[in-house]
Amino acid sequence: MKNYYAKMQVLALASLISTAAFAVNKVDEEPKVAKKFIKEGIWRGVFKVAETEVPFNFELKGKDAEHATFTLLNGTRRDDFHIKYLGQDSLFIKMNTYDAALVAKIESDGRISGEYKSLVPGLQGNALPFTAEQGKSYRFVEPGKDVAPTANLTGKWEFKGFSKEAVPNKVAILKQEGNKLTGVIMQVTGDSRELEGTVQGNQFVLSGFSGPSPKIYKGTINEDGTLSGEISQGIYDNLKFTGVKDSQAELPDPYKLTHLKEGVKKLAFTFPDLNGKPVSLTDDKYKGKVVIVELVGTWCPNCTDQTVFLSPWFNKNSKRGVEAIAIGFEQKDDLEYGKYTLGKLRDKYNIKYDILFGGLADKRLVADKLPALNKFIAYPTTIIIDRKGEVREIYTGYTGTVTGKYYDDYEKKFNKVLDELIAEPVPSAAYFEAQANGK
Where does the chain cross the membrane (predicted)? Predict the structure, then answer.
């Protein structure tokens, strides 16, 4: 199945590049001509999103695709990717577990040009053009051309969005040193990952590209110190926002957003694992165990960051009477596709717990398939179940390490709750038998 999807993705992308009108399995039939490769060092790329340019930076180490590492740079964050050839002068850079890729042609002057391309079957028309040039380490403003900033944006901000539908408030944590601006934007669903940008006069801008669709936040510092601007979400849409500096700004409590419906104590579901075998919480494997249930998607960056946290935690603690289950909701309602995407996630992050396929990534469908929940708000959502099979904690969203205190608080409470539940006594077999008989 992996080979099938890999070939299908390359074939779908071949038309993008004039020299790539062939399938990967025919590359070896070409004359043995030295393949072009791009220069090592720091690069500056620019996506074209509607009328907006979204810059990003990356570093290339290695003399050829087989040995090269392509690293996206965002402030202090580093994300590594592998490179494959498409013919003699074109490259394919898969965004690891995200079903998207950078597909680029090496131009005669050493620059590269191409597209950030969705690889999801049926969504392959979604693409963003980009170009990149080696030797440029700046993101927005060339060295020597900075304009003195009119304000320092360091601190915590409350962002209010405006759209046709209700938009949850966001909290921004920004740090400014001279013209350089870095930060993270948080909302109930998770965080933006680390952003990098600049303040020029009364204008500010931040961008981020770490594998999922690129994003840019840009706007104006108003005379009263407030902000007004726009967020462009890569392939997706734009959102207007205003910002007010507020050291007390907070998001809703993530432990109180999602809960079980009144009178319900347990979660029930049956979903297939990656081999197609039905799995339920009532299976013997989970009886008497503390169980962590994660509702995730491989397309979701906060889910990936949560997996980076949970997988090593589970591998360290699995013998303490705890199990974990990840239920993946993907961009295509197809078990074979789920095997491919979720299998990539499993292999990339050394996941030892069960991974199930939940179906299409649609919040309404998730709520329908898990009717015990009052509502479903965000990927990821973490549900912690005690040894009796009763839900004890539900956490909506995820805040990664870049959020500092928010991540530290999450990690501390997660471990405290798990330690307490693991320490509880294991119910007798009679308890589970009575439960099964409805007593």
Answer: none
Nearest to 323 by CA among 359, 282, 357, 361: 282
Cβ–Cβ under 8 Å, residues 74 and 196: yes
End-to-end CA distance of the chain: 45
Looking at domain 2-134, which of 3.40.50.720, 2.30.110.10, 3.40.190.10, 2.40.128.120 is its CATH number? 2.40.128.120
| Sequential pLDDT tens for the chain (439 residues) | 545 445 544 544 444 433 333 333 334 444 555 678 999 999 999 998 877 899 999 999 998 888 899 999 999 999 999 999 988 899 999 999 999 999 999 999 999 999 999 999 887 667 899 999 999 999 999 999 999 999 999 999 999 988 766 677 899 999 999 999 999 999 999 999 999 999 999 999 999 999 998 999 999 999 999 999 998 875 556 788 999 999 999 999 999 999 999 999 999 999 999 999 999 999 999 999 999 999 999 999 999 999 999 999 999 999 999 999 999 999 999 999 999 999 999 999 999 999 999 999 999 999 999 999 999 999 999 999 999 999 999 999 999 999 999 999 999 999 999 999 999 999 887 566 667 766 5
Say whether 145 sits in a helix, a strand or coil: coil
Q: How far apart are CA 284 and CA 292, in angstroms?
A: 16
What CATH number should be reported for the domain whose range is 155-245? 2.40.128.120
